[in-house]
Amino acid sequence: SAVISQKPSRDICQRGTSLTIQCQVDSQVTMMFWYRQQPGQSLTLIATANQGSEATYESGFVIDKFPISRPNLTFSTLTVSNMSPEDSSIYLCSAISDLNTEAFFGQGTRLTVV
Amino acid sequence: GQQLNQSPQSMFIQEGEDVSMNCTSSSIFNTWLWYKQDPGEGPVLLIALYKAGELTSNGRLTAQFGITRKDSFLNISASIPSDVGIYFCAGRNSGYSTLTFGKGTMLLVSP
């Protein structure tokens, strides 16, 4: 089965700065997603990363705060912009290989904003 | 939006005991999934359910898709220390829609 690698695995950032998280899949996938998992909480979908076009954001998430790129079928980035302590969370990349399979996840990026 | 109520929130059991957890929804799902998340890792799919009433096993794990399509349960038999983690249910309406996750059940197993 396909494997997702996320970088960085963790980071501590100053408030007001931005962090870009990379998600690399070892094979082509149909769909890619970005989730946020706040401490002790469930997974909340931020957006669906669309190849070659703007991402589709869920309610409560906006492109200015969470710009997403997906230049090809194996790679996506999520940027957390102008960070505040409330952005401290685990950010997870997920993908679906084809529409007959279920979503699989990267190991996550643990972000702490100080 | 849709919400999944997952219970219990946490469980602390002795090795060898059986475990049961469940999810209920205010609306119908066409697919129910169960994931496990180990500390510092992303969720890993355990079992996928596609038909109302379906009962599926994966080793010591058994999950069922409720007949009403509004609920699902996961049972773990003869628990072992490596079962420790957070278990999430997730529902999906159709093949193209996104997943809705429950809040998770944290399982601790004492040797």
Question: What can be said about this structure in brief?
Answer:
With 114 residues, chain A is an all-beta fold. Chain A is 0% helix and 47% strand.
Distance between the termini of chain A: 37 Å
Number of helices of chain B: 0
Biggest interface reads: A-B, 22 and 18 residues
Oligomer: heterodimer
The average pLDDT of chain A is: 95
The total beta strand count of chain B reads: 11
- Biggest β-sheet description of chain A: 7 strands, mixed
Q: Kindly report the average pLDDT value of chain B.
A: 94
Shape of chain B: globular
Evaluate the radius of gyration of chain B.
13 Å
Gross morphology of chain A is globular
Poorly predicted parts of chain A? none
List unreliable stretches of 5+ residues of chain B.
Answer: none
**Main β-sheet of chain B: number of strands, strand sense, barrel status?**
6 strands, mixed
Query: What is the strand tally of chain A?
Result: 11
Q: Return Rg of chain A in Å.
A: 13 Å
Order of helices and strands of chain A: EEEEEEEEEEE
What is the percentage of strand-forming residues of chain B? over 45%
Explain what the structure shows.
The complex is a heterodimer of chains A (114) and B (111). Chain A has strands at 4-7, 10-13, 19-25, 31-37, 43-49, 56-57, 68-69, 75-80, 89-96, 104-105, 109-113. Chain A contains no helices and eleven strands. By secondary structure, chain A is an all-beta fold. In chain A, strand 4 and strand 5 (43-49) form a beta hairpin. In chain B, a hairpin with a 7-residue loop joins strand 9 and strand 10. Chain B is globular, with a radius of gyration of 13 Å. The mean pLDDT of chain B is 94. The chains are: A mainly beta (114), B mainly beta (111). The A-B interface holds A 4, 33, 41-45, 48, 58-59, 92, 94, 99-100, 102-108, 110 and B 1, 33, 40-45, 48, 88, 95-96, 98-99, 101-104.
